[in-house]
Amino acid sequence: MRILKVAVVFLTRLPVRLDPWHDEQELARASRFFPAVGAVLGLATAALYVLFSALLPVTLAAVLAVASGILLTGALHEDALGDVADGFGGGWDRESVLRILKDPRQGTYGVIAMVLALLLRVGALVELGPERAWAVWPAVAALSRVGMVWMLWRLPSARAEGAAAGASRDLTGRDVAVCTVIGLAVAVGFRELFFPCLAVVVAVTWWWARVARRRLGGVTGDVAGASQQLGELGLWLTLVALG
C-alpha cells in the first residue's frame, strides 16, 4: 500500500498522507503503479466531462474537464512539456538545454507547446463526445504513462542527480513488467482500436527516446513527463482519426 501511496503523491495533488517522505528507490518501485493512478485520474475526469456536458455545451464541458484533470495532477506533465519545449527549442547544445530545463520560468516555446497541447486535447474530446470519452479516457491516461516508465528504464539519466537519475538507476525489469501489464489491462478499453493505439504509444515513445538520446544523451524527469503528454496526444488523435 505504501508504494501505491508514493505513486499517488508523486503524480497527483490528492491529499494522501505519506510519512515518512519517500526516497528515490521507493519512487522507482512506485512507477509500476503509474498506469493505475493514471486510469483513476482518467476515470475521474471522464466522469466530470459527462457531468459538465449535461449542464453545458460540449465544448465548455471539455474545457472544464481538462482543467479539472490539470488541477488533480498539479499540471505535472504539462509543466514538463513546456520546459522541454523551451529547452529543445532554445538550447543549442546539451549543456544549454539542461540549463534551460532547470529554469522554472516558462518561455515562448513552452507556452506555445502547452497551449497547442490543450487545444488538441479539448478538440479531440469535443469530437469524440462525452460517451466515447468516458470509455477511453482511463485507457489513454494509463497507456501514456507506460511509455514514460519505459523511457526512464531504457535510457541513462542525463544528469547525475534528480528523480530521473534515481529511477534510471533503481528501476527493475519487474517494475516495468508490472507497469506494462497494468497499462495493457486498462488499455482493453480501446476495444477494436487496442492495437492501433498500442502501436502509436510504442512509436511515440521510440521516437521521443531517440530525440532525447540525441539531444541530451539520456532522459530527465521533464523529458519523461513530456513523453506522457506526447503519447496522450497521439492517442487522442488516433481515436478521432479512426473512431
How many discrete structural domains? 1
Strand tally is 0
Helix content: over 70%
Tally of DSSP helical segments: 11
Mean pLDDT: 93
Description of the molecule:
With 243 residues, the chain is mainly α. The protein has one domain. It is 79% helix and 0% strand. It contains eleven helices and no strands.
Quick rundown:
The protein has one domain (34-242). 79% of the residues lie in helices and 0% in strands.
Fold topology:
Elements: H1 2-11, H2 24-30, H3 34-53, H4 58-73, H5 76-90, H6 94-102, H7 108-154, H8 163-170, H9 173-186, H10 194-216, H11 221-242
Features:
single chain
